[in-house]
Design a protein that fits this description.
With 909 residues, the protein is mostly beta strands. It is built from six helices and 47 strands.
């Protein structure tokens, strides 16, 4: 029956072929891919490509040969090969590409199925980790995770990555500053919001690399800007749908928490929103929220464990690509409210050349803040060679703060130097607007480009408040010899503007060498008006210039540079140098001081990169950088002075200079599932700008910035890591060795102090996971720290330390689940601290999962089960040691629920 059907089909095919009356030929031989022996009697079928209609079939001869005749000169055909225990193979042939009317396939090799399976296994191992230059790419599908696992849980088992209990990520020994989604920022630069709210099963690839500036990315020439970054590539079938997570819980003592995030992804459009509120310290933005408010301090609306918080946060995100990906937009908005109340006590020792000062202070504090922040980025590709980018953003920050403190300073013999009682309260507001434009164009000649970058910032702040300070001073016999009182009303109104313009031109000198010419212009202006009125005087609004500042300043910088880039096969070499002429003008309107400073800065750079393979690379570099003294270092603000602290100007400050070298090697042995490497650096700074300290017998501090001329500060670091999958145990294990240290020079009471410091560390990481059964994660770190001060060589601050961070999830029958995690810290006593320090913070929850995919979890949780989170920290710098105890969140219980919801749409193929 079947033979008749096949015969009929072949007959029809023959009729069709005859009707075209053509004489083209397809021929070849079929052989084994390994042994190169003919596959006699292999089946070869010829099909019409346009509709898969069978034209003819045949069997290979004794020598493996086959042939089809009388074929059309203009048709496309599919030749299909099959043989028992071999993988099938198909090949397309277009006869129009064979005007001689003969398509000779020569030898067609079929692969045994057994060998093919081995190759698939090897390829899957290769796909697990891939190294391309400074980018390490992980195939997320090669790593098993629990149901409904977050991206953070996926990152924990990737070789070379570590995630602590706060969500901070370390990659190859360096802190990750950004987490992107398909190359786009997701709620600005907040890694924990991404890693704790996106699902692991959505991720296709995880890429770890050093993100460069836009200019360096476009030209390929380093400019020193590098942020360790993770990019999450979303699976295509997870880019269409709605997903999110909601969590709520409440317990005794007014403890509550609510968090929710909703995401709507549809192809090239993404929308997300989140909201949080609670009293347990989870702000929704995690420990990574460090939004700047105009200075070098962290965002005041973040919570870092000190005090009892009450916070609310919300955010919106939208990004979209359209016009065949020629246009894109990425926008973010964040809002936060934060109230914190607490108290703290600090005990410190300051070892000075003139003697020891012991200090004890207590304070209570209260703060309330509100923060709005928004930004939008529009990119338009005018054509295939030209890209225009506009980035605009702004922020508005308002706060109220109050503090009451009492402080006593004593001499080494415990006699009192002074007692001080102080209080303060202030209102503060800050707002800023940023506008950045760029145009990048590739010209007709290959390797020739030109680009322009313009960055503008406009900022201003304002505030008002009151401060009170009352001090009593004592002689060495303990008798009170004087008192002082300072009552101030404070106001401020400041305005700042910065402009940065840069243009770069690249030219290909040859197929291997390219050149980059750059020019940049920097202009800054500032009007600082900070006023203090001494309310102790009977005359109202009497300005006290000893505690007031009115400064007008501006700066202008012109920089030009030239760099060369050599790129051939596996080697890339970059050499360059920038020269910057910098002028700074400062006018103090209260003291009539006028300062005009000129600086010439050199910034040479070099880098060597060698790519051994896709799984092994080496990189080394050098940078020279001049640091120009800032305006508040040259002329400090009197507004920041107090009854017991004074900052002095130093108009003779000059540049310091730093030489930096770094290196990185990383490799992956995919067949053995091994990943290892090292990175390190060495810095050398001459004429470093440091803050000199002088303490008088009454305990008052005077500060002044100076150059440490004739002294050289050094710093080094080296980290190695090794990670391996122990296949018999199905265990991912990693180990790391690290060291860092150096020497720094400073001035204390006109004496030079040299601090020698070093730390040696060992870390280990274990991860074992069995979906629906258990998950175990452990990070252990230990080491030894050594500090020696030349002014107090007998007072050493040397100690051993270690920390353990285990995390365990166990899935029981009936969908019950137990989660527990802990943080144990131990630090050895030293001459600076007489007691060992240890603390165990243990958390756990027990719950039940509901529904088929365990989307809903109802749980009972306890934070700090042993109630040991007592709010304690130690600090040791140069000759200063302190212990700080503060109010913090301790043990509490909660009943809560977590709901993970997803609805992904099928993609039409």
């Amino acid at each position: 029956m079947y033979s008749r059907i096949i015969g009929a089909i072949l007959l029809l095919a023959g009729i069709a072929g005859t009707a075209k009356a053509q004489n083209s030929i397809i021929k070849g031989k079929v052989a084994d891919s390994s042994l190169n022996i003919p596959l006699t009697q292999a089946t070869v079928v010829l099909l019409q490509a346009k509709d898969s209609f069978i034209i003819a079939s045949t069997r290979a001869g004794n020598d493996g040969s086959f042939q089809f005749r009388q074929l059309s000169d203009t048709d496309r055909y599919v030749v299909y090969f099959s043989y028992p225990k071999y993988a099938n193979y198909a090949h397309i042939i277009d006869m129009r590409q064979h005007p001689q009317k003969e398509a000779d396939m020569k030898s067609v090799y079929l692969i045994p199925k057994g060998k093919l399976l081995q190759e698939v296994i090897v390829k899957s191992q290769v796909a697990a980790i891939k190294i391309n230059g400074d980018t390490t790419e992980y195939n997320a599908g090669s790593f098993k995770v629990q149901p409904n696992a977050s991206v953070e849980e996926l990152l924990r088992q990737l070789p070379g990555l570590q995630v602590d209990q706060f969500g901070n990520i370390t990659a190859h020994g360096q802190k990750v500053k950004k987490v992107l989604v398909d190359g786009e920022e997701f709620f600005s630069d907040d890694p924990t919001l991404v890693t704790r709210n996106l699902r692991a099963d959505m991720i296709d690839k995880v890429q770890v690399y050093d993100k460069k500036s836009d200019a360096a990315t476009f030209t390929g020439i380093e400019d020193g800007v590098k942020d360790k970054t993770i990019n999450l590539k979303i699976k295509e079938d997870k880019n269409n749908g709605i997903f999110g997570k909601a969590e709520a819980g409440a317990g005794p003592d007014s403890k509550y928490n609510f968090q929710a995030m909703l995401n709507a992804f549809k192809g090239k459009r993404r929308m997300s929103a989140y909201a949080t509120t609670g009293t347990i310290g989870r702000t929704g933005l995690g420990s990574a929220d460090k939004s700047k408010i105009g200075d070098d301090t962290d965002g005041e609306d973040a919570y870092y464990g000190k005090g009892l918080p009450n916070s609310s946060n919300a955010g919106l995100h939208y990004d979209k690509k359209w016009n065949k990906d020629k246009s894109s937009f990425n926008g973010n908005y964040k809002f936060s409210l934060m109230d914190i109340d607490g108290a703290e006590e600090t005990i410190s020792t300051n070892n000075l050349p003139t003697g020891i000062i012991l200090s004890n202070s207590t304070s209570s504090f209260s703060s309330s803040s509100r923060h709005h922040q928004a930004n939008g980025k529009y990119i338009h590709k005018i054509d295939s060679n030209t890209t225009f980018t506009l980035l605009a953003g702004g922020a508005d920050y308002r706060s109220n703060n109050s503090n009451i403190s009492a402080r006593q300073n004593r001499r080494g013999d415990s006699s009192v130097i002074y007692d001080n009682v102080a209080s303060s309260g202030n209102e503060y507001n800050f707002n800023k607007f940023d506008l950045n434009l760029s145009l990048e164009k590739r010209l007709k000649k290959k390797g020739r480009t030109i680009s322009f970058y313009l960055n503008n910032n406009f900022s201003n702040d304002g505030g008002s408040g009151n401060s009170s300070s009352i001090s009593s001073f004592y002689d060495p016999a303990g008798k009170e010899d004087s008192t002082a009182q300072l009552l101030l009303a404070k106001e401020m109104n400041d305005h700042w503007r910065t402009l940065h313009f840069q243009t770069l031109y690249t030219e290909a000198i040859s197929s291997r060498i390219s050149m980059v010419i750059n020019y940049s212009l920097d202009n800054e202006s500032a009007e600082d008006n900070k006023r203090s009125y001494n309310t102790a005087f009977p005359i109202p609004k009497l300005l006290d210039t000893a505690f007031s500042t009115r400064v007008s300043s501006s700066s202008l910088g012109n920089q030009a540079g030239l760099a060369f880039n050599y790129n051939h096969k596996k080697t890339n070499i970059k050499l360059g140098n920038n020269v910057k002429l910098f002028q700074q003008t400062i006018d103090n309107l209260y003291t009539n001081e006028h300062l005009n400073k000129h600086f010439t800065n050199l910034n040479p750079s070099a880098r060597f990169d060698y790519k051994f393979s896709n799984y092994e690379s080496l990189s080394m570099g050098y940078n020279g950088n001049a640091t120009t003294p800032g305006r508040t270092q040259l002329l400090p603000f009197n507004y920041n002075n107090s009854q017991l602290t004074t900052s002095l100007p130093n108009t003779d400050l000059h540049n310091s200079y730093t030489h930096s070298v770094d290196g990185r090697y990383q490799a992956s042995r995919v067949a053995k599932q091994v990943y290892y490497g090292f990175n390190g650096g060495y810095n050398l700074t001459t004429s470093a700008i440091v803050q000199a300290t002088h303490v008088d017998p009454s305990g008052a501090y005077t500060y002044q910035f100076i150059n440490m001329n004739g002294y050289t500060n050094t710093n080094y670091n080296l980290n190695t890591y090794y990670s391996k999958k122990i296949i018999p145990l199905d265990l991912q294990a990693g180990v790391g060795l690290g060291t860092n240290g150096g020497k720094t020079y400073s001035s204390i009471n006109d004496a030079v102090n040299k601090l020698d410091y070093s730390t040696y560390s060992l870390s280990a990481e274990l991860f074992k996971n069995k979906p629906y059964k258990y998950s175990i994660y452990l990070v252990a770190t230990g080491g030894y720290t050594k500090n020696t001060s030349s002014l107090q060589p007998e007072s050493k601050n040397n100690y051993f330390y270690y920390s353990l961070n285990p995390s365990v999830d166990i899935h029981f029958p009936k969908k019950f689940q137990l989660h527990t995690d802990a943080t144990y810290l131990w630090q050895q006593q030293s001459q600076a601290f007489s007691d060992n320090f240890s603390r165990l913070t243990w958390n756990a929850w027990f719950g039940k999962n509901f529904f088929k995919n365990e989307q809903l979890t109802v749980k009972v949780s306890c934070n700090d089960i042993l109630n040991q989170n007592n709010g304690y920290s130690r600090t040791a710098t140069n000759t200063y040691y302190s212990e700080n105890r503060y109010t913090t969140i301790r043990r509490f219980f909660m009943l809560g629920a977590t709901w993970n919801f997803t609805r992904f749409n099928n993609i039409k193929q």
